[in-house]
Design goal:
The chain has 273 residues and is an alpha/beta fold. The protein is 30% helix and 24% strand. It starts with 6 loop residues before the first helix and ends with a strand.
């Protein structure tokens, strides 16, 4: 199973080492089925394509982050079933909660969206369920450091027969053009990042001045923290003790809105530049 490395995908990319534009290398042309091969930037930095997914990770990943990536690789095939435990644990329907993302989608016109930690593509699967008859207006991109998660995402997207350009890349140095996306989305992960400020700064770099960044992760609302249920949730999983990382927001971030979703167990930060 593989994807086409098409013009829309290549146009969005930039070299993570030097920031220059990316081109298909040598024997390939846009639109071909790219299973394995190479792409190169204007300065000649070469990047591998494996099973249709370009790998543009630079610099090397820090040990703290590598530990989490290894865990995600190991659980990738069973991840979707594992997270269903949240439904009972938190009293939610996780896929319906993900579908709330549709409130940020413009009513009409083309939309460029990137999920910078796409995981198993659950957010885009929810988007597909909400916009089945409108998928042609979406230019969707997904990036992750876990190759295991990307393989699962690739399979699910192919089975549902809609297009997402997948890239193996780092949220600390995303290999994408600046000011390119209407919506930059990140759910579930930033609490464990080694450089939260750096990740948020890069998310803001990717979004257009007219766009928004949406960041969601475990973190109980102040009200929920005081309840017996909230205390039990934190005792069972201390990630829910996290608070919105507003202290790490880049200086250029504006119009910050913080709400609590999923029964007030996850924080949601929305901001622009």
């Amino acid at each position: 199973m593989h994807l086409k490395l098409n013009e829309a995908h290549v146009k969005a990319l930039r070299c993570p080492q030097c920031g220059k534009k990316i081109f298909l290398n040598g024997e390939f042309t846009p639109g071909e089925d790219m299973i394995d091969g190479k792409i190169a930037c204007e300065k000649g930095h070469i990047w591998e394509i494996n099973n249709g997914i370009p790998s543009l990770v630079y610099p090397a990943i820090r040990p703290q982050d590598a530990k989490w990536i290894a865990e995600y690789d190991e659980m990738a095939e069973s991840y979707d079933e594992m997270v269903k435990q949240y439904n009972d644990f938190l009293g939610i329907d996780l896929m319906k909660e993900r579908a709330r993302f549709s409130q940020f989608i413009p009513i009409e016109g083309p939309v460029r969206i990137i999920d910078v930690s796409i995981g198993t593509a659950a957010n885009f699967m929810a988007l597909y369920e909400s916009f089945k008859n409108q998928m042609g207006r979406f230019n969707l991109h997904g990036m992750d450091l876990s190759t295991g998660m990307l393989r699962v995402a690739q399979r699910k997207i192919a089975e549902s027969n809609f297009d997402v350009s997948l890239t193996h890349g780092s949220v600390f140095n995303p290999p994408y053009q600046s000011n390119f996306f209407d919506i930059v989305l990140h759910t579930g992960g930033i609490n464990t990042f080694s450089d939260i400020h750096g990740a948020l700064k890069e998310m803001l770099r990717l979004v257009k001045s007219s766009g928004i960044v949406i960041v969601v992760d475990e973190g109980l609302s102040p009200k929920m923290r005081e309840t017996e249920k909230g205390k039990a949730i934190i005792k069972a999983n201390n990630l829910f003790e996290a608070r919105p990382p507003i202290q790490f927001l880049p200086e250029k971030a504006q119009n910050l809105e913080i709400t609590y979703v999923m029964n007030e167990t996850f924080y949601q930060m929305v901001f622009s530049k």
